[in-house]
């Protein structure tokens, strides 16, 4: 093996470091109970059909792709519609960050797999509704118009979530366009049109992964809420 | 503008096709990779070896593209192997758990040997 073959690649700083189990970035965050110690679950680790879903919005010439993504990374949770809550307390999205989120009443999380100047990508943990890779990006065309895009490659994680897919899909079609509209409005673009495209990449269900149901974040969130009166109260940070 | 990736298809053994991928692997080269996979599959290959030894850069779009390629391969009952990955890219395959579906080997010869052993 030559020294050259192990030279630092150009993309090295953009990727999360390899880990086996997720550790919540902020240990004081109380919503990390469905992520801590879990593994990530990419699109090949889920159960349901594999979908590629893309939402795009033309933001015009007001902002460059790099400036847009820098702002998106710095204020990611601020652009979420009220139906979801991103519990990130870190100052900006960085590769390797592990953060809790609540959507549709279910508490789960994400890991930042990749982040560069014009894109960043999340992987979901075991138990999330979707075994997914979600990429947020911006690019400009020859005329200098910037397009913001959210693209996800996802399978429902387990048979229970798969039965809820028609409902979840409609929820996604409200949530992610809402994110793009909030992002656009923050940069002075009102009444933005969000385009959506869905492709079924694989119609098969991965029955070998039906046991993912043991990680189901919906069930675990419900159990966590039920057991709340019996848990010791958190007393906050100590000096 | 990032330099484009280049794909070269060869047939190193009966039932085996290899796709040598060089340059920058991003979602922008999806059409090229899928076309290379079509050429690789035309001869009825049951093992497709992806040779990354000349890859210079990959972003998360490249990983998404490999997931799509994997699904296409599985539809054709193909096994997909990856060779020539540096430690950096090997760790990305492990982090994303792609290594559970795409078998990693040091080189094409060992990938072919492993498949023939398993097939025996």
From TrEMBL, chain A:
Domain of life: Bacteria
Protein name: Uncharacterized protein
Organism classification: Bacteria, Bacillati, Actinomycetota, Actinomycetes, Micrococcales
Automatic annotation (TrEMBL), chain B:
Pfam families: STAS
Superkingdom per UniProt: Bacteria
Gene Ontology terms, MF aspect: anti-sigma factor antagonist activity
Protein name according to UniProt: Anti-sigma B factor antagonist
Ranges where the STAS domain occurs: 14-115
The organism of origin for this protein: Microbacterium saccharophilum
